[in-house]
Amino acid sequence: MKPGTFLKSTPLLADTVFENSIIFIVEVNDKGAMGYIINKKYHRALNELEEFKHVRSFPLYVGGPVDQEHLFFIHKRPDLITGGTPIADGVLLGGNFKEAVTHINNNLLTGKDVTIFLGYCGWDRGELEAEIAEGSWEIIGKETPFQEN
């Protein structure tokens, strides 16, 4: 498993938080793996969160069940957002969120450039590989972690 991999849940995960989920893996190391659910919009937009009430409307996604009190993001605009960590195929993890919000507000970033998540998916070392081996996840081909607004 490597960063940039896409996983699709199988029927074994029906009736769980991962039912019908597509996961984008952003980090794999000796402690485990981390990713985001990329196909489930959150019921509120960024500007509906108190801290961002003066920002223009921008979609949020449910990134996963872990740490849903925090926002995380991926993007493909290192020319506008500094400090991101390269994942794969020109996609970066995180960076200067204040810059991202400023550029969203100024209409320089769209859903094709950045995706913002509430929470993330995390697996301990060997856990995700075991779930793939048991058939809970299938590795799928090229998807895009970015959406239209």
Automatic annotation (TrEMBL):
Transmembrane segments: none
Highest rank taxon of the organism: Bacteria
Matches recorded under Pfam families: DUF179
SUPFAM superfamilies: VC0467-like
InterPro entries: AlgH-like
Protein name as catalogued: Transcriptional regulator
Organism: Niastella populi
Lineage, uppermost ranks: Bacteria, Pseudomonadati, Bacteroidota, Chitinophagia, Chitinophagales
